[in-house]
Amino acid sequence: MVKCIFTVSFRSDLDQGAALRHWREVHAPLITQVAGVTRFTQNIASQQLAPAWDGVAEIWFESAASYEEAVKSPEWNVVLADCPKFMDMSKLGAAVVDEVMILQ
After folding, report:
1. Which of 91, 74, 77, 72 is nearest to 19 (CA)?
2. Per-residue b or e along 28-40, where b marks 16 or more CB atoms closer than 10 Å to that residue's CB
3. Global model pTM greater than 0.85
4. Domain annotation for the chain: domains and CATH numbers
5. Segment 67-99, tens digit of pLDDT
């Protein structure tokens, strides 16, 4: 299993509600169309705590091979093209991580 995490900051020229709706209702369905994606979560930051980001996305792939294939696909390019429509790309953070479960 391969897990990728992305820190998401909405564009400052967009209303936060509109950006959040776009992330949930437009962007999320695009990710579900990418072959090899086995799980996708959106973690919305609580604005009461003055977060550094508006949210964190987590995307899981079955294997390193399926990850490599997915990020080269036309469907992934559609996902990438959608990002600037609601995200501040200068603040985007991304990492492929090894998840270590401490407590479940």
Report:
1. 91
2. eebbeebebbeee
3. yes
4. 2-97 (3.30.70.100)
5. 999 999 999 999 999 999 999 999 999 999 998
